[in-house]
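User: Structure please.
Assistant: Input sequence and predicted structure:
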Amino acid sequence: MLPAEAGLETRAIDFEKGCYPGQEPIARQHYRGRVNRTLRVLRIEGEGSPGADAELRWDGKAVGRVTSAVRDGDHALALGYVRREVPDHAVLAVEGRAVRQLDLTAARP
């Protein structure tokens, strides 16, 4: 995983610093201007948490993977990497269950 996929490049990477391990892939991503996937917070309907590395699907295509999940009442909350071309409002599926993407910038109740 690249730091930019998790939204960490602005606070965790110094592009002015000298050489460091892993510099080449980080610099290549930065100067090409984008990543192929981004970290998203997911709300998964139904009982139980999805299995480790569960596949996220949209319109019948695999578009990402769940990295971790936890139960929260009658649903699960999860983190997952999703292809960047998938709209934030798209409803995904994992293990036959609906997955909604949560807005990280919105105020929480």
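The CA atoms of residues 56 and 62 lie 6 Å apart.
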